[in-house]
Amino acid sequence: xxxxxxxxxxxxxxxxxxxxxxxxxxxxxxxxxxxxVREAIDQLGYRPNLTARHLxxxxxxIIGLALPELGIPYFAELAEEVIAAAERESWSVLIDQTDxxxxxxxxxxxGARSRTIDGLIISPLALDAEFLTAMxxxxxxxLLGEQVGxxxxxxxxxxxxxxxxxxxxxxxxxxxxxxxxIGDQRVSAAGTANVRLQGYRExxxxxxxxxxxDLVVPAESYHRPDGAAAMRxxxxxxxxxxxxxxxxxxxxxxxxxxxxxxxxxxxxDVAIVGVDDIEDGRFSTPTLTTVAPDKTQIAEAAVTMLLExxxxxxxxxxxxxxxxxxxxxxxxxxxxxxxxxx
Amino acid sequence: xxxxxxxxxxxxxxxxxxxxxxxxxxxxxxxxxxxxVREAIDQLGYRPNLTARHLxxxxxxIIGLALPELGIPYFAELAEEVIAAAERESWSVLIDQTDxxxxxxxxxxxGARSRTIDGLIISPLALDAEFLTAMxxxxxxxLLGEQVGxxxxxxxxxxxxxxxxxxxxxxxxxxxxxxxxIGDQRVSAAGTANVRLQGYRExxxxxxxxxxxDLVVPAESYHRPDGAAAMRxxxxxxxxxxxxxxxxxxxxxxxxxxxxxxxxxxxxDVAIVGVDDIEDGRFSTPTLTTVAPDKTQIAEAAVTMLLExxxxxxxxxxxxxxxxxxxxxxxxxxxxxxxxxx
DNA sequence: CTGAAAGCGCTTACAG
DNA sequence: CTGAAAGCGCTTACAG
Lengths: 342, 342
Fold this sequence. Notes:
The structure is a homodimer. The model of chain A is unreliable at 337-342 (pLDDT under 50). In chain A, 41% of the residues lie in helices and 16% in strands. In chain A, helix 2 (16-23) packs across helix 3 (31-44). Chain A has helices at 5-12, 16-23, 31-44, 50-57, 73-88, 104-109, 129-138, 160-173, 192-206, 224-235, 249-261, 295-310; strands at residues 62-67, 92-97, 119-122, 141-144, 154-158, 179-184, 216-218, 243-246, 271-275, 289-293, 319-322, 324-327. In chain A, the strands form two sheets. In chain A, strands 2-1-3-4-5-11 form a six-stranded parallel sheet, covered by helices on one side. A six-stranded mixed sheet of chain A has the order 7-6-8-9-10-12, sandwiched between helices. Chain A has three domains: 5-48, 434 Repressor (Amino-terminal Domain); 60-158 and 295-323, Response regulator (Rossmann fold, 3-Layer(aba) Sandwich), CATH 3.40.50; 160-292 and 326-332, Response regulator (Rossmann fold), CATH 3.40.50.2300. Chain A is an alpha/beta fold. Chains A and B meet through helix 4, helix 5, strand 2 and helix 11 of A and helix 4, helix 5, strand 2, helix 11 and helix 12 of B. Chain A binds a DNA duplex through residues 4-6, 14-18, 20-21, 24, 28-30, 33, 48-58. Chains A, B: InterPro entries: HTH_LacI, LacI/GalR-like_sensor, Lambda_DNA-bd_dom_sf, Peripla_BP_I.
């Protein structure tokens, strides 16, 4: 198909080494030779074959990003940042969707382990420590979100316990006493859901409020329908909640929908807090109070750490804890007046 | 780093050809040899180097997907489907974000033109026919969304004129007479915005309603803030609209926010229709009436057509028009009762 | 059924 | 400042 270095060399009447020198902009090429080579390149429409270059260098210039699904805005926004950060360093990003099952087969088959990528940023979810440890032996790895086991690989996350505690404290500070939690998951022992639940419980304990298991509703996935269904369950309780801490914004937006459809007012009757700070929550009615992780910083840290590993850094696993901040908006702001959308 | 075919061959005491035969599961390998090779593979932890294989085959097994940004849910959902469709065919997807500027530099540098991908699915936006024609000479191309010029490359899209006409007719059918449009763009002559505007105008004309340029508001990008700002502009008119057709759901959700914040009721005072059918609109309050393109079909058609080209199909540019359907929800349903969210 | 050799397109010591 | 040659790891005619 395309022309190769050899073709260019032949046309320019020089060796491939010289063409390579010109292409890679090494000095020590005479101006005359350089322009002759340039001409040949233009004439043939030559562009370097990156696959060959990668084979030679022993790397592909591509990193993988394994996420549950792009359909969850938090991950889409994060992917956006990761791609941008990688591009700044002239790396490309291959995205793998794990469907939240963290299915080993998928990861294995999808190139993560087949040396087509030089490193992997992975949101682990259902993957266990053992599997990840094995993966790390093959491939530089950066974990996103939550530590799966002690010192498995580099990690970038926010302090989820503190974040959850602050969110719950904020609701308690509003004077609410029946504070529910939506998003519990029993899948893995160290998952994000568990640490968020822990922060929730700490806040309740500090406020001297008894933990009521009825107020903690699991969510199979973290989409709006799950939040909506969980909220319906909570509304069916004899003593329903007056506030809800949702483990992500999508669950919160689903819960919000259920509340409004049931004729309840938010925050007057039930206040809501989410996590992620996705754009949706800044334009919903009411707007959504949320814990905002610094996604740009998370993405940059992940890419930086991964490339350091790809470049041979041999150090014990590192942890970057990115900052987060509670964004108070209408869904917990009882001062603002109520409005009627329909 | 990892073991190569040669290492395995040496350990198993056979030639590399034989190892290759085993790895690729060719028949005609004696059971004894096969198991000896298998053992060596396990022992060395051998996995094939895809880069080398790709060099040999002259292709990378990777296709590119160039989108404005993953932060726009429609594109994130589409990317999700494209990745899934590609994976079914054992292809990987490299995502490029063009930032809506369709910037040539980015595309050029980001691998699209550097032979690291075997084909490209691209949402063209600001790219002109000339540039795309030049690209197609290098690389199999499938255009997403809108035809940029006559017969430039394979295209998959919905019938945007009809979709826009139907959306507008739906609003007119509600008895609205001041129907605004948000999302006009002057960038390219054949862009999606223009065909949607055309459908809008056709519907007005068919209903015998004069076209009022004051009711058509441009949007620089298609995010919620743009819709919110455009709606504020419309509300400042002496004779504000009683309905709005937004060129995508994000604009519609932004407009919705402005209306509710201004104390207006939707749809009682102003009815709204969007395009894209993103998940947000199914859970907003009120839920959003929208034109739903069949994203799965769009993604599958794009991947199928691209792979056909990658496999050498030499045919004139083809067009796939995917189905769409108007999803009527609360934002235009004047029959449903009004509820008060806050 | 298996082996030795060439070649995909590049880069990089090694000479000159 | 430039060239001839080896090699990255794979596959594939070509022999046997």
